[in-house]
């Protein structure tokens, strides 16, 4: 069972075998850490990286950060050992790349041995099957992999990610329909702070719960953009108070700051307050 009100704004990837990054991640204000064994680790280093990931977990020092392992794809020779280690070493969940179908999602859940699965949607087929993948019991989140997806689509994303918007929204719709979480893909230009912030704001607008990151410089902006602001909290409290005043006077619909308020707005306002807390 996943705690839906636990903030998961910033989800940082790092190569499991890069010692300086592992040490740095323990000091960063990230909500989730993904030790990567897949694309950030070259084939010859896979076994050593798996050992490094286990050692990093056993050494501790991760505080309240949620710890995930990104395993290699299920079709590889490394996946079974990756997932067995994740369970044995005490990771909180596993990220499974390139999940293409319901069958593959079900296999991931089985191989994860009870650990929650965050399924990566990063192939055209994965996008089309995302609604069914998200409903597989044991899958608790969809993770957008927009670099792989753009490659497979032969898309050339602009600053507004125009050719990817269909897929990004499809991932959010699939996740929300199934009641699981969803996280946006990475922004690869680590030197472009303004570009990162703009993309993170677009993630929020699309409905994602958080964003995956690749560099410490992206953490603070991500947390800020995905946190309810002080104004959001004041707005939510005012809206709930207005709705409750309406109920007390016998009406189920009222206005707040000139806009209609119904129970659905109150539900969203309560979610915002829960997150802010
Ligand atoms: C992108 C990087 C390769 C850049 O590396 P580098 O230029 O060496 O970074 P810096 O010199 O600026 O690093 C400064 C210090 O910060 C630490 N660091 C860097 N990145 C991280 C990180 N991700 N987490 C924690 N700490 C980090 C460095 O170790 C330096 O520390 P120190 O020496 O003590 O000062 C690099 O940032 C990187 O490797 N990022 C993560 C790459 C990764 O994990 N990729 C896989 C996931 S993304 C993906 O696969 C896409 C997806 O699947 C899709 O299809 O879209
Ligand atoms: Mg990928």
TrEMBL record:
Residues holding substrate: 70, 122
InterPro entries, A to Z: Aldolase/citrate-lyase_domain, Citrate_lyase_beta/mcl1/mcl2, Pyrv/PenolPyrv_kinase-like_dom, Pyrv_kinase-like_dom_sf
Domain of life: Bacteria
Residue ranges occupied by any HpcH/HpaI aldolase/citrate lyase domain in the UniProt entry: 9-216
Recorded GO MF terms: lyase activity; magnesium ion binding
Binding site for Mg(2+): 122, 148
Pfam families: HpcH_HpaI
Cofactor(s) demanded: Mg(2+)
Keyword Manganese tagged: no
Keywords: Lyase, Magnesium, Metal-binding
SUPFAM superfamilies per UniProt: Phosphoenolpyruvate/pyruvate domain
Keyword Lyase annotated: yes
An annotated GO BP: oxaloacetate metabolic process
UniProt cross-references to PANTHER family, sorted A to Z: CITRATE LYASE SUBUNIT BETA, LYASE BETA SUBUNIT, PUTATIVE (AFU_ORTHOLOGUE AFUA_4G13030)-RELATED
Family: Belongs to the HpcH/HpaI aldolase family.
Name of protein: CoA ester lyase
């Amino acid at each position: 069972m996943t705690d839906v009100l636990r903030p998961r704004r910033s989800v940082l990837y790092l190569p499991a075998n890069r010692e300086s990054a592992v040490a740095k991640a323990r000091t960063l204000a990230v909500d989730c850490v993904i030790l990567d064994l897949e694309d950030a680790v070259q084939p010859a280093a896979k076994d050593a990286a798996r050992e490094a990931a286990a050692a990093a977990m056993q050494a501790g020092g991760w505080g309240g950060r949620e710890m995930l392992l990104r395993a290699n794809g299920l079709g590889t020779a490394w996946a079974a050992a990756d997932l067995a280690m994740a369970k044995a070493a005490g990771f909180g969940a596993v990220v499974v790349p390139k999940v293409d179908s319901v069958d593959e999602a079900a296999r991931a859940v089985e191989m994860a041995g009870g650990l929650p699965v965050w399924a990566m949607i990063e192939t055209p087929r994965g996008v089309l099957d995302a609604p069914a993948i998200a409903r597989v019991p044991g899958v608790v989140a969809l993770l957008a992999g927009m670099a792989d997806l753009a490659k497979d689509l032969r898309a050339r994303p602009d600053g507004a990610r125009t050719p990817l918007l269909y897929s990004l929204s499809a991932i959010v719709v699939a996740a929300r329909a199934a009641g699981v979480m969803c996280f946006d893909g990475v922004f690869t230009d680590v030197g472009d702070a303004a570009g990162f912030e703009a993309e993170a704001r677009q993630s929020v607008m699309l409905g994602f719960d958080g964003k995956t990151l690749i560099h410490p410089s992206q953490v603070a902006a991500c947390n800020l953009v995905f946190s309810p602001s002080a104004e959001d909290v004041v707005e939510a409290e005012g809206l709930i108070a207005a709705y409750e005043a309406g109920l007390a006077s016998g009406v189920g619909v009222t206005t707040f700051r000139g806009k209609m308020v119904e129970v659905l707005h109150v539900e969203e306002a309560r979610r915002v307050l829960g997150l802010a807390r």
